[in-house]
């Protein structure tokens, strides 16, 4: 039984090491901070928007964001998750799919790329497949994406 235990132990060790990923580790605090600034985050998604046409809005100030929240009639219970955006350091991309005939539609950030001069954001619209079970109700999906400030923003 001991040889079986040894073989199992060796197998588990090899399996564990082969499954590890090698991610670059920032060598200084400055490079770690730079990498963090390049990330985006989805701070809010909803299926019941009031904006009926497909559009993208870039929000750069608290005042513009407050106006958008009012226009969308976002419930006060959701404020905690969206009101923590620092517009001195970040912009907000608000992507609206427009009015859709049923549930099952969604928005996904497919690609996020940062250069010295611009931020490219590729957004994919998810459409329910033919035959999917969906609710027969009008929806207007949208998403709020927080990105670093100070560069040209290209949304595809």
UniProtKB/TrEMBL annotation:
One of its GO terms (biological process) is proteolysis. Pfam families: PrcB_C (PF14343). Keywords: Hydrolase, Protease. Residues 93-148 form the PrcB C-terminal domain. This is Protease complex subunit PrcB family protein. One of its GO terms (molecular function) is peptidase activity.
């Amino acid at each position: 039984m001991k040889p079986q235990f040894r073989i199992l132990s060796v197998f588990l060790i090899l399996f564990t090491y082969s499954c590890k990923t090698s991610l670059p580790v920032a060598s200084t605090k400055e490079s770690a901070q730079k990498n963090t600034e390049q990330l985006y985050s989805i701070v809010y998604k909803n299926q019941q928007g009031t904006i009926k046409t497909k559009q993208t809005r870039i929000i750069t100030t608290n005042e513009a964001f407050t106006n958008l929240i009012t226009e969308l009639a976002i419930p006060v219970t959701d404020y905690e998750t969206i009101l923590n955006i620092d517009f001195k350091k970040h912009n907000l991309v608000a992507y609206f799919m427009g009015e859709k005939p049923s549930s099952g539609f969604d928005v996904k950030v497919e690609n996020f790329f940062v250069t010295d001069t611009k931020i490219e954001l590729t957004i994919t619209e998810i459409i329910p497949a033919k035959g999917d079970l969906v609710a027969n109700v009008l929806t207007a999906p949208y998403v709020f994406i927080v990105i670093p400030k100070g560069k040209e923003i290209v949304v595809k």
